[in-house]
Amino acid sequence: MKWRGLLVAFLIFCLGFVSACSEQAVQAKDPRQLTYDEIKGTGLANKCPEISEYTRGSIPISPDKPLQVVDMCLEPQEFFVKEEGTKRQEGEFVKGKLLTRQTTSLTEMRGTLTVDENGVLTLTEEDGIDFQLVTVQIPGGEQVPFMFTIKKLVAQSEPGFTAVNTSADFTGKFKVPPYRGAAFLDPRARGLSSGYDNAVGLPAAADKEEYIRGNIKLAEVREGQISMKITKVDGETGEIAGVFESEQPSSTDLGAEEPKDVKIRGVFYARLEPQV
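Given the sequence above, the corresponding structure tokens read:
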């Protein structure tokens, strides 16, 4: 009986150890070097490619020779939501817990990188998988949905550049489309392009201020801002990588709620090619 008890305890320990290991963050690998079967179910498809830590090159650029940005990828790693302040204390960002699992990265984005006569680099995003629906939970249990995106990003550096190197820092703004589509119906069948105009017990009450916001749906395009710092450049392959921090509004449920400020931090990757 004693041996049986020891055996059961050993098996429980082994199962606990395996579970703990399986809950660790997915190790970063280059998804381009793996097969579908090696990626399936692992979360690696959500990881951006990486460049060696010791890569410190440069990529020449001039006003008459702009560069094409391909395979651009943004991988968020931390999320923060700004809580409402009080009379005594201003609102501050608190860390959120990701609820959306391994579907958060923006990938396969394309754009252009140009430089003007003053050496100002301009990064413009054009298309690709440039949005993801993300939900985080903040302390207290509130869940905050938002559309993580950099749609129509235009970011610029300081002047003085004749090449893309690790001194380049970009800041810019982008568009944040509404989290819900115009045809979305809320639990009371109200929508922007379909559904009821109002859904209250007494039609006369629909004009009251407390109901107007829920009845009148708005699909507003808002604005976000981002800062990106290049930390690695491979002059031979044209690859660049670095870190980013962006701020954008959360979902307003088609105008029914006030948006919260969301801050996202993570890493990015892209490849630069001569424009044809």
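The first helix runs from residue 2 to 22. Try to locate this feature in the token string yourself.
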